[in-house]
Write a structure and sequence with these properties.
- The protein has 264 residues and is mainly α.
- Helices cover 69% and strands 4% of the residues.
- The longest helix has 62 residues.
- A hairpin with an 8-residue loop joins strand 2 and strand 3.
- A three-stranded antiparallel sheet has the order 1-3-2, covered by helices on one side.
Length: 264
């Protein structure tokens, strides 16, 4: 199986990721994709041929193998890699949409098409949620389908057409179990990275919104002070008559004006 498309996808996503996102790309590419291609695929390559039972009843081995391994570990692992990487396409497509929109209008509409803000921020957060969800779903599938993350040396099968309970032996059980633990560990690491990046982006966005509101509020209060100074200089007589009237500024605004006014 060729994994070139997944490599190209991860390298493309790396350009638009945060620092934590780049760590996630490195983990998926090095500790999952390369390990799968270089080692794990060969371990499970002949798992059906090497599955042996102590009886030669026709069809018995096939039925027992299908019962204990409804989906091959390695194929489920490959499907997991594809599913957790696919949501990153949303970010790539959104950036491509921004670039095409700028070309269509023949003007610069964004500071940078790959900058994570506005609609691209929402797309990025959705991709993180989907990746985390897929990781959790596949971990649950691994646990439910194989009764845990252990690979037994021997399984007992009484499925028809086996005439009685037969013993079946799994090849390389210890080696397979080690790689299953490695799979679980890397999946959990990716979940932690996704949640960390999600929290970082949400926190960063909240801080940005707070600072923008604070700056607008300060600018508004300074504008009120400037207007009051102009009115005071233009109508000095009227200022005395209406000093205690309802048109005067609120106490908080008056204090801010006194602090920021260059006349004091």
């Amino acid at each position: 199986m060729s994994w070139g498309f997944l490599r190209d996808l991860l390298s493309g996503v790396n350009k638009y990721s945060t620092g934590i996102g780049r760590i996630w790309v490195a983990v998926v590419f090095i500790f999952r994709l390369l390990v799968y291609i270089a080692v794990a695929e060969n371990i499970w390559k002949y798992e059906h041929d090497e599955f042996e039972c102590n009886i030669k009843q026709p069809g018995c081995e096939n039925v027992c193998f299908d019962h204990f391994f409804p989906v091959s570990h390695i194929r489920l692992w490959a499907l997991q890699l594809i599913m957790v990487s696919t949501p990153s396409l949303l970010v790539v497509f959104h950036v491509a949409y921004r670039e095409n929109r700028e070309k269509h209008h023949n003007q610069k509409l964004y500071k940078s098409p790959g900058e994570i803000d506005g609609g691209l921020l929402c797309t990025y957060l959705i991709s993180l949620i989907l990746k985390t969800g897929f990781e959790i779903i596949f971990l649950v599938l691994f646990y439910k389908l194989y009764n845990g993350f252990k690979v037994p040396h021997l399984v007992q099968c009484d499925m028809r057409p086996c005439p009685n309970t037969v013993d079946c032996y799994i090849s390389k059980p210890t080696e397979k179990m080690i790689f299953l633990y490695f799979l679980v560990a890397t999946s959990c690491l990716c979940i932690v990275l996704n949640l960390s990046e999600l929290s970082y982006l949400v926190f960063k966005y909240c801080i940005k919104c707070y600072l923008e509101r604070y700056i607008k509020k300060r600018q508004g209060s300074k504008g009120d002070c400037h207007k009051s100074e102009i009115v005071g200089r233009d109508t000095p007589a009227a200022a005395g008559r209406f000093h205690n009237s309802s048109l005067s500024l609120p106490p908080n605004t008056q204090d801010e004006c006194e602090e920021t006014s260059p006349l004091t």
